[in-house]
Specification:
Layout: H1 3-8, E1 12-20, H2 23-38, E2 45-50, E3 54-57, H3 70-74, E4 79-82, E5 89-92, E6 96-104, H4 108-125, E7 131-132, E8 143-145, E9 148-158, E10 161-169, H5 175-178, E11 189-190, H6 193-197, H7 205-219, E12 223-226, H8 242-248, E13 256-259
Parallel strand pairs: 1-2, 1-12, 3-4, 9-11
Antiparallel strand pairs: 2-6, 3-5, 6-10, 7-8, 8-9, 9-10, 9-13
Amino acid sequence: MSMGERTRIGDELWVCSLGTVPYLDALAIQQDIRARRLAQELPDVLLLLEHPPVYTRGRRSGAGDLPFGEDFYRARGIEVIDTDRGGQLTYHGPGQLVGYPIMGVVDVHRFLRTMEDAIVAALAEEGVHARSRHAEGIDYTGVWVQERKIASIGVHVSRGIATHGFAVNVQNDLEPFQWVVACGLPEVTMTSLERELGPSGSTGMACIRRRVAFQFCEAHGRRQRLVSPRRLGIDTTNAAGLAERAHLSTSPPAAAEAVPA
């Protein structure tokens, strides 16, 4: 990227929708974009996507988070993957909006609060009154509808660049959350946009994706620029080698900070 291009797009946040991507492939995509962002070849980027069923364990996860043993979950078609993000265990699946902001970060906690604010604003446009509970402690990071959790957040920051991000339950199956200790909270009740509004009340994935992208950019004071996967050099139809590279890169580098979900 030339100096003129850096100046021109300095206030932009590139937003790219990837569709459904296996978790390890998405992890490798993040790592590639992070390296290019660190080299100033790309501006800040927000990836929006869905995952096939998968449990991911953050750096504060414990053995008790999967009480039935990993074979139980894999027999039901759900992968179990360790990650370098902060927080504990969560579930991703079809119908859940996942966002990965690969961005420069100065104040990690402000970054988390800004993500929460953006999701709260997007849900308000859908008619759901949500809130942050960060003042109650590290375990309550995320977005809540009364005492029900609708969005999880967990990031990893290394050399000033963040990866991982947020997951908003839109119209996904919530039962897999009941089989585990989600977010390290045995008593947590997960909810979704569809559960709060009913099947006919929710505007669906495409609309909430647009709302979240817009509010995320607004919360960061950035101008949204929609870009294609090809513009970012991403070929989601040819994922050979991505999963292997992700497996080899899950250990965090030195001077890294993992932040809770």
